Amino acid sequence: MNSTELYDKIIELGNAFAKDGAEFKEKGNKAAGARARKASLEMGKLFGEYRKATINETKK
Fold first, then answer.
1. N or C: the chain end with fewer CB closer than 10 Å?
2. Exposed, middle or buried, 50 (CB in 10 Å: 0-12/13-18/19+)?
3. Residue pLDDT, tens place only, 40-59
4. pLDDT band at 23 (very low <50, low <70, confident <90, very high)
């Protein structure tokens, strides 16, 4: 994946995290909390990939 695709995926997951995190916080929905945690883990992985992709693209 290139940096643009990774960026878009991170934004998508960030929006899902915000929605599910708010639902967990406001309503105590345990399933939403689990989804928010899953999204945060995936974003963490993508941050590393994004960093590598941007470094490689700036070297070109």
1. C
2. buried
3. 999 999 999 999 999 999 98
4. very high
Question: Rounded to whole angstroms, how far apart are CA atoms 6 and 47?
Answer: 8
Flag whether the pTM goes above 0.85. yes
Question: Is the alpha carbon torsion for 34, 19, 21, 47 positive or negative?
Answer: positive
With b for 16 or more beta-carbon neighbours within 10 A and e for fewer, the 24-48 pattern comes to beeeeeeebeebbeebeeebeebee
Instruction: Measure the CA–CA gap between 39 and 30, rounded to whole angstroms.
Output: 14
Q: What is the number of structural domains in the chain?
A: 1
Structural domain including 23 reads 3-59
